[in-house]
Amino acid sequence: MSATTSHPGQIGPRKDLAVARALGRSRRRKDLLIRAFCVAATLLGLFFLASILLTLLLRGLGGLSLQTLVNVTRPPGSGGGLLNPIVGSLIQVILATMVGTPIGMLVGTYLAEYARGSKLGGAVRFVSDVLLSAPSILIGLFVYQLLVLPFGGFSGWAGVAALAIIIIPVVVRTTEDMLSLLPDTLREAVIGLGSPKWKMVVLVGWRAAASGIITGVLLGVARIAGETAPLLFTSLGNLNWSVSLNQPMSSLPITIYAYAGSPYEDWVTLAWAGALIITLGVLGLNLVARTVLRAKR
């Protein structure tokens, strides 16, 4: 009997082939439709990103000069710059990163390596997720009640504390996710050689997940570098030159917030220059980190 002959009551090969072709055409149409939506969404996102960057460059480059970088803030029309906001932001962001990164890494390591499936781990993870999605102004109000009111005034330390609280859950989430992606066979191999678990975590786990953890830290830095609301309730800002953390401290986000809404054209220009400085700083930090990680690989 021929291979193409069908028995009574059975669907023949020709009909099977027609059905398969119809299904194939339907799947290709759906695939093309989904691809078109994905490409359109990507182009839309790139359009808005390019628009923001282009606007920053066009408006910010006009106010970016050596005078802007070496002069402190001054009254309108006095040729002021952004030196004290830049230095204040650098001090607060660096200290907040130094405080928040180790805490976030240790908490993320605990959740990934020691608290799998435990109730305490679930509670810690829940609190971290709440902090991650909490409005930054609430964190500013919390630090205001904790460090500003009891000590009788605004200070750079309060700003550092608020920014550190913001960066911690970002580092916790990325550290936990990166360590969770490591295969259990890697852990078993290291422990099977007689190494204690803490050495496995520090010397193998952290090293294998270094790129992801550093990316999380950079995301946290990018977030706190532009935070304004928590600093309004903590470090407040300072129009004069001051690097003392015991006094109100200037910062770029606060200065941009104050200058952008002013009626003075030179202050508005400085606000755009400050926004461009923050953007270029975060971009440069990401490029340097990726270059270093690529060289290590």
TrEMBL record:
InterPro entries reported for this sequence: MetI-like, MetI-like_sf, Phosphate_PstA, Phosphate_transprt_permease
Record carries keyword Ion transport: no
Source superkingdom: Bacteria
Pfam family, one: BPD_transp_1
Primary location: membrane
Keyword Ion transport on entry: no
Subcellular location: Cell inner membrane; Cell membrane
One annotated GO biological process: phosphate ion transmembrane transport
Annotated TM spans: 32-58, 90-112, 124-148, 154-172, 204-225, 267-289
Topology term for the membrane: Multi-pass membrane protein
GO molecular function, one term: phosphate transmembrane transporter activity
Residue ranges occupied by any ABC transmembrane type-1 domain in the UniProt entry: 86-289
GO terms under cellular component: plasma membrane
Family, as annotated: Belongs to the binding-protein-dependent transport system permease family. CysTW subfamily.
Protein name, per record: Phosphate transport system permease protein PstA
Organism of provenance: Roseomonas gilardii
Lineage, uppermost ranks: Bacteria, Pseudomonadati, Pseudomonadota, Alphaproteobacteria, Acetobacterales
